[in-house]
Here is the input.
Amino acid sequence: MTSKVIGFSANVERLQPSATIAVSTLAKRLRSEGRDVIDLSAGEPDFPTPEWICDAAVQGIRDGMTRYTPAAGTTELRQAIARSLSELAGREMDWNGVVVSTGAKQCLFNACFSLFGPGDEVLVASPYWTSYPEIVTLSRAESVIVPGDPARDLKLTPRELEAGWSERTRGLIFSSPCNPTGAVYSTEELTAIAEWARERGVWLIADEIYRPIYFGEDAGDAAGLLDVPESSLGPFVLVDGASKAYAMTGWRIGFSWCDPEVAKQFTALQSHVTSNAATPSQVAALEAYRDRGRAREAIAGMRDAFRRRRDLVVHLFDELLPEMAYVYPRGAFYLFFRVDSALGGDVADATAFCSWLLEETGVALVPGAAFGDDRFARLSFATSDDVLEDGIRRIARAIRGR
Here is the structure.
């Protein structure tokens, strides 16, 4: 006997599944069916989690670290994260402002669900990570998509923000380094945005999960909100985590930092949604954030590989696909490129282009519609040099064949 589905609640009726996960899932299914698939859609490092981090988790399990922790995470992990943030900021960051969650995605949910609600508008920098508007939708607020300036690598300035602002605007969400473009905001650009948000009384939510994956001339992290003068900052939530920089995507450890009184509200919400992040994962993350010397060494090795791959991808595009403009990636591990020149016939937009490409060549990309601009596609270079070169050459041959 089957039950008739009457309908879903207003909480989820407008919700769309994650396009990036959908593409990756399809690519894996095709590969399992015997198709020769090159998956350039994945949003995770291809490196293993550093062995010393894994060893700490295993030892923690053997020592009985398998029970509940406080909802906001263990005191030791929150303090270690706060020390790491203090090192970045050059000032003391209160560990009571840290809330450890099941990935950065939950941190964003905690922030939006706690700070916004019906009648509120939240500015979302476009191109955006695919989940930002959906998380705003879950909070029953409205996303206002604000396109970045094409002359500035699709980054926002106060001019674009002012155009999107209304009396109902309560928040702004953006990322730097940006997923999907790889664009990176300078300290001066971040300061201008922070001052605009402060003057407008807008919550600033900065996703800095890719901050250590930065290809600047020095060996440091990209600029972040903690580099902005305190006098320029209004209310803000910093979102980060272990997933990208430490190659720990499956461990599901993210964290937010905000005013400790606000963090209490995030903790209260989380206590009713998921409670604590997995305890063995917290043990692993504690080792990552506590042993800063080994962490910096591990991150530097992965960052160097990503830089080399970035240079390879850019070179191949310039050589084989010169008609396809792209945002030059200065961080993260993505190339966001326009596919307008390859459209025509039954391939009317980037979504159709990516479907055609997957069927024609076995190369999986994510269409720009997932990020708010269907003129583009996103390619991940979080894979080997050989795979990248094979995939890009397949794309070039297919386009020439059209």
